[in-house]
Design brief:
The structure holds 2 protein chains of 2 kinds. Chain A is built from 6 helices and 11 strands. Chain A is of the alpha+beta class. Chain A has one domain (about 5-235): T-fold. A 7-stranded antiparallel β-sheet of chain A has the order 1-2-3-6-9-10-11. In chain A, strands 4-5 form a two-stranded antiparallel sheet. In chain A, a hairpin with a 2-residue loop joins strand 2 and strand 3 (about 115-120). In chain A, helix 4 runs antiparallel to helix 5. The longest helix of chain A is centred in the middle third of the chain and has 18 residues, at about 85-105. Chain A is globular and about 50 Å long. Chain B is an alpha+beta fold. Chain B contains 3 helices and 7 strands; from the N terminus they run H-H-E-E-E-E-E-E-E-H. The two termini of chain B are about 35 Å apart. In chain B, about 35% of the residues are buried. Classes of the chains: A alpha+beta, B alpha+beta.
C-alpha cells in the first residue's frame, strides 16, 4: 500500500499481536499492490482466470462490485486503461481485518492508522476517547478540526491523497477540483473508507450521499476554505 | 528560435521524466513537524506504537510515522544535509492543475511545507443551496492548536507534490 502504518496499543504489556498484524498488512500489499508486477492483482489484470483467484481476491472484488451498486456507479475500480485497481477499498478492508485480529487477541483499546484512515477501539491511555485531528488540505502541518472517537472510524479522501486514484468514473475525469477534502466517520473503517472514496468522486454533492447513510457523518472542505458538514457531525467534535 | 529550442528541451526532459516515474510509486513520509507538532501527549509508557513497512516502494525506505523521524523522499533519504531556510519548488503539473510548494528547514529538518499553488481551475464559488440541503451545516475552516493523537488526512504521495518538494529540497 506504500504508506506508513501505525498501531497503538493501550495497557497490555504483551505486544505479541503486533507482528501478525504487520505481517497481515504485508500480505495484503503483496496480494493487492497495483504497483508490484508479482502481485495477484497484477496477474488478475493480466487475465488470471477467476477460478484461480485466491479467496481474499474473490472477497475484495465482490465487495467492490457491491460498493459500486451502492454508490450509483461512482465507486468504480476499473481504470481508464481497463485495469482493475481496488485500492479505494482494500486499505479500509485491511485495517478492519487487522482490527479484528487485535480484538481476537484480546486487545480492546487501540487504534490502527494507515495513510490517514483510522480505526479506533475503546479508549486511550487516559481513559478518554481518542482525539483525532482532521488535517488542513491547505497547510500540511495544521489541523482544522478535532474529533473524539471511541470505536468508530474515520477516512479522509482528498485531492492530495493519492489524487490519481480518485476520479469520477461516471463523467470520466478527475474529481472536481473544488472539493479538496472529505472526511467520513462511520461505524468501521471498511465502510468509512469505501464510502469516502465514492462520495469524493461525486464532488460537492457527495456529502448528500453520506448524509443519506444511517450511522455516517461527513465533513468536507472546498478550495475556498468553506466546510460543509452533516447534522450529526458535531456530536463527535471535541 | 533559441527560445523554441529551450522550450522543446524542457518539454522533452519532462516527458522523459514522466515516463520514468510512471513505473515507480513515489513515497513520502509525513513531514516530521506533522507528527511532532500535533501529536500532543500521545507518547506514553503504556502504549506501544509501532510503524512499518507495508511498503511498495523499492526506491526509498519507510519512515516511522509515530516518531520524530527524518522526512524522506525518493532521492533524499535524509534531512541532515539540508541547510536552514525556506525554499520554493518548481510548479509541477498535477494534470488537474499545478502544484507548487515552499519548504522550510530548521535545524536540518523540514518544519513546514506550504502550498503556493494548488489546483484551482474551477470556480471557487461557495454557493450551497441551503434549502435543498437542510441537513447540512457550514462554517469557514480555521486552523487550530489541539492535542490530537492521530491525524486523518492526506498522505502526500502525489507525484506533483513530491516533484515540487524535491526541487525545493535540492536548493536546501
Amino acid at each position: 500500500m506504500g504508506m506508513p502504518i501505525t498501531v497503538e496499543l493501550v495497557g497490555k504489556q504483551d505486544r505479541s499481536a503486533l507482528s501478525p498484524v504487520f505481517n497481515y498488512f504485508k500480505e495484503v500489499d503483496e496480494r493487492f499492490s497495483p504497483y508490484k508486477p508479482t502481485s495477484e492483482l497484477a496477474k488478475v489484470n493480466d487475465g488470471l482466470a477467476k477460478t484461480l483467484w485466491s479467496e481474499p481476491m474473490h472477497e475484495v472484488m465482490k465487495l467492490c462490485e457491491q460498493t459500486k451498486q451502492l454508490s450509483g456507479g461512482f465507486f468504480d475500480i476499473k481504470r481508464a486503461d481497463g485495469t482493475l485497481d481496488p485500492s479505494g477499498l482494500v486499505k479500509g478492508w485491511a485495517i478492519d481485518n487487522a482490527a479484528k485480529l487485535l480484538k481476537s487477541a484480546g486487545y480492546s483499546d487501540f487504534y490502527i492508522e494507515a495513510g490517514g484512515d483510522i480505526q479506533t477501539a475503546g479508549l486511550n491511555e487516559h481513559h478518554e476517547a481518542w482525539a483525532v485531528g482532521i488535517r488542513s488540505p491547505f497547510e500540511l502541518n495544521q489541523i482544522v478540526k478535532t474529533i473524539k472517537l471511541n470505536g468508530q472510524a474515520i477516512a479522509t479522501s482528498g485531492t492530495y491523497i493519492r489524487g490519481e486514484h480518485i476520479y469520477d468514473p461516471v463523467n470520466n475525469f478527475a474529481a472536481p477540483a473544488q472539493l479538496v477534502s472529505l472526511s467520513v466517520i462511520g461505524p468501521n473503517i471498511f465502510e468509512a473508507d469505501r464510502f469516502a472514496t465514492a462520495a469524493y468522486a461525486m464532488g460537492e454533492r457527495g456529502i448528500n450521499f453520506i448524509a443519506s447513510l444511517p450511522g455516517f457523518e461527513a465533513y468536507q472542505i472546498n478550495q475556498a476554505g468553506q466546510a460543509t458538514f452533516t447534522k450529526g457531525f458535531n456530536r463527535y467534535v471535541a | 528560435m533559441k527560445k523554441a529550442y529551450i522550450g522543446l528541451g524542457v518539454l522533452g526532459i519532462y516527458v522523459l521524466y514522466s515516463l520514468g516515474i510512471r513505473h515507480q510509486q513515489p513515497q513520502l513520509a509525513k513531514p516530521s513537524s506533522l507528527v511532532s507538532g500535533n501529536q500532543g501527549s500521545s507518547s506514553n509508557s503504556n502504549g506501544a506504537s509501532l510503524s512499518s513497512a507495508a511498503n511498495t516502494s523499492a526506491s526509498t525506505s519507510n519512515t516511522s510515522s509515530s516518531s520524530n523521524a527524518a522526512t524522506s523522499s525518493p532521492s533524499a533519504s535524509t534531512t541532515s544535509g539540508y541547510r536552514d531556510g525556506t525554499y520554493t519548488g518548481n510548479s509541477e503539473d498535477a494534470y488537474y492543475g499545478n502544484v507548487q510548494v515552499a519548504v522550510t528547514v530548521s535545524s536540518g529538518k523540514i518544519t513546514n511545507v506550504k502550498f503556493l499553488q494548488y489546483p484551482n481551475s474551477h470556480s471557487t464559488s461557495v454557493y450551497i443551496n441551503q434549502q435543498a440541503m437542510p441537513y447540512l451545516q457550514q462554517e469557514t475552516v480555521q486552523s487550530q492548536n489541539a492535542n490530537v493523537q492521530i491525524i486523518s488526512g492526506a498522505t502526500f504521495t502525489s507525484q506533483a507534490f513530491i516533484q515540487s518538494l524535491q526541487t525545493a529540497l535540492n536548493k536546501a
